[in-house]
Design a protein that fits this description.
Elements (H helix, E strand, L loop, with lengths): L5 E2 L10 E6 L2 E6 L10 H11 L8 E6 L18 H19 L5 E5 L2 E3 L1 H7 L3 E5 L3 E3 L13 H9 L1 H10 L3 E2 H7 L4 E3 L4 H13 L3 H15 L3 H16 L2 H11 L10
Parallel strand pairs: 3-4, 4-5, 5-7, 6-8, 7-10
Antiparallel strand pairs: 1-2, 2-3, 8-9
Helix pairs in contact: 1-2, 3-4, 4-5, 8-9
Length: 269
């Protein structure tokens, strides 16, 4: 059953380029620049950052989507001004802070992708933890054709999904991947028909929200960092994280529920 979302209040309600709704433990954050294909300007990236660091205390999972026909067409070039080298670094780091708040925030993020997932839009999508793509989704990195280089974290995140060689192809040649190609190379986890992505994304977010919060947090924070470590260092961090998770009261109760037959066993869906 799809939960009934209601508009967020307080600070989250004041973010004019986002539509934020809540339903118990779920948050739905929607980019709200449909006339611009949800292209990201400075105000929007700052509002994304603000929203992610000010989620309600009861939030356990977040669905990220775009209003209108597209998820996000990337950097809004119409508002881009000439910058000094220093200003360019500062601007890129502002994007990094927002994307880090998505990837390394308090709750897992499920991104629902449709239409353009291009440039900064792909950088934003790659900072989410789960990606659901509709038939209409297409992926591109046009920075190479525009004399630019990715600046929103794409060089660090996208290659972890598809490899640096495939990313190089997209940037050097302007190659665009459709939804099926994106699924096959690892840009999305789930595929749906057009119009069905949000329902699937909410369904996944509900499953995620039912997990122990500390367990979700460990997956979000530890897994990507362990992947960057040597095997020896990674295994030690894994031991620390496993011990922390097992010591959580919620984890202990879930283990008791399983052992006493009150929790279901893993089955093929």
């Amino acid at each position: 059953m799809t939960p009934a979302f209601t508009p967020a209040s307080g600070l989250l309600a004041s973010l004019s380029l986002l539509r934020i709704e809540t339903a118990g433990a779920l948050v739905h954050l929607r980019l709200l620049r449909p006339a611009k294909r949800n292209a990201i300007n400075d105000t929007l990236i700052q509002q994304i950052h603000t929203a992610m660091v000010n989620l309600p205390d009861q939030a356990r999972a977040l669905v990220l989507s775009g209003e209108g026909a597209h998820f996000c067409a990337g950097l809004d070039l119409s508002e881009m001004s000439e910058r000094s080298t220093f200003d360019g670094v500062f601007h890129s780091r502002m994007w990094h802070a927002a994307m880090d708040a998505v990837q390394f925030g308090r709750v897992p993020v499920v991104a629902v992708l449709h239409g353009a997932v291009v440039g900064g839009g792909l950088e934003l999508a790659s900072s989410a933890h789960i990606r659901v793509a509709e038939d209409s989704a297409f992926y591109g990195l046009p920075e190479g054709q525009r004399g630019l280089f990715v600046g929103g974290g794409g060089s660090a995140r996208v290659p972890r999904l598809i490899g640096f060689s495939r990313m190089s192809d997209m940037m050097l040649t302007g190659r665009v991947l459709d939804a099926d190609e994106g699924q096959s190379v690892g840009l999305s986890h789930y595929r749906t028909a057009d119009g069905a992505g949000l329902t699937k994304g909410i369904e996944l977010a509900q499953k995620i929200a039912a997990n122990a919060p500390l367990s979700n947090y460990a997956v979000m924070q530890a897994l990507p960092r362990i992947a960057d470590l040597s095997q020896s260092d990674g295994l030690f961090v894994e031991s620390l994280m496993a011990a922390i998770a097992q010591g959580d009261d919620a984890a202990k109760q879930r283990m008791r529920d399983f052992l006493e037959g009150r929790a279901g066993k893993v089955q093929k869906s």
